[in-house]
Amino acid sequence: MATAKMGLGGLPSTGIVAKSQGIHDKMDGNALYPAADPTPAVMQTDINALAAANAEVSNNGGKAAYQARNVAEKKVRAGLKKWVGYVQMASGGDKDKILASGFGVVERGTPYGQPNPPLNLNALLTRTANRVRQEEIGRAHV
Questions:
Q1: Helix or strand or coil: residue 7?
Q2: What tens digit of pLDDT does each residue of 108-126 get?
Q3: Which of 49, 55, 98, 107 is the most exposed place for a label (fewest CB within 10 A)?
């Protein structure tokens, strides 16, 4: 079973606009996801507002511009969070259906395997009760 992911980690606001626009374009009119909430039209409005806020920050850069951008970004993130939950539910964990929405899929790690045993390990008595200090052989003992 695959898990959908938003994939917004580390993206600046301008990157969020591009990523969310790509997801929007794949979700808009997608027969697999007819009941998306918020609607694609509402998401497009929010994405446009974030793009405009990004432009205002670039042009003006005042406190009000940064605050407006932060508010717009939170709104887009919230919409995408709702969408990713809906996609996960509606897809039933099918990787191809998730990818058709524009969202990514969480890649599962592969087992690393058996680690190599430690080399040159030596246990020494210490002055502390119930403890053993481990050092490499050949190191100076203190």
A1: coil
A2: 888 888 888 888 888 776 7
A3: 107
Q: Residue 137 — φ and ψ, nearest 5°?
A: -65, 140
Distance CA 102, CA 24 (A): 8
pLDDT-derived band of residue 140, with 50, 70 and 90 as boundaries?
low
Q: Please tell me whether residue 102 adopts helix, strand or coil conformation.
A: coil
Q: How far apart are CA 40 and CA 80, in angstroms?
A: 11
pLDDT for 131 beyond 90: no
Q: Which helix (H) or strand (E) holds 79?
A: helix 63-91
Cα–Cα distance measured from residue 7 to residue 103, given in angstroms and rounded to the nearest whole number: 7
As given in the structure block, the two tokens for residue 131 are 């403890």
* E strand or H helix at 105: strand 104-105
Cβ distance 141 to 124 under 8 Å? yes
**Residue 87: which of 15, 138, 30 has the closest Cα?**
30
Quickly list DSSP for 14-70. HHHHHHHHHHHHHHTT-TT-TT-SS-HHHHHHHHHHHHHHHHHHHHT--HHHHHHHH
